[in-house]
Amino acid sequence: MGTRPRGHSPGRERPLRGYLAALAAFGAYNTGWAVMICRRGRALPERPDRRDLALTAVATFRLSRLLTKASVTRPLRAPFTVYDGPEGPAEVSEHPREGESAATIGELLTCPFCLSVWLVSTLTAAQLLWPRPTRTAMGALTALAAADALQLAYAALESRATASAD
Known about the structure:
Blueprint (H helix, E strand, L loop, with lengths): L15 H24 L10 H20 L4 H4 L3 E6 L5 E5 L3 H11 L1 H18 L1 H35 L1
Antiparallel strand pairs: 1-2
Helix pairs in contact: 1-4, 1-5, 2-5, 2-6, 5-6
């Protein structure tokens, strides 16, 4: 049996009206992107390039962690979340504030999985409209994800070496 994410307990009432508003906002957001892409006359590719899929996946992962968990972006989430404490290297744990709107936005801003849906839509549309700058930004986020993985691997090796020396 897996663990439930914070705030997703079976007894807690879910903000269904807030979710409905978020769904409507997501639809409007993506409609706006689609209209902008059509007005610019951008043709959709026959199929996504595999390299773009990989780049978008890693960039979305890193950006969603940065926006939902990083200590440095906490001021952006603070109006909608309550601080619980540190959680992993340079990350924090938070939960949504009470109140329908705050709870919905708070869930979006504390859940990397939830925010990823919005981010992948944004990056995909931006890639169609502004391919070079978007790929450059996604490349930087991908490099950051790789650097983070190397930092964690180094720390684990250092910890193992220290434990072996004892």
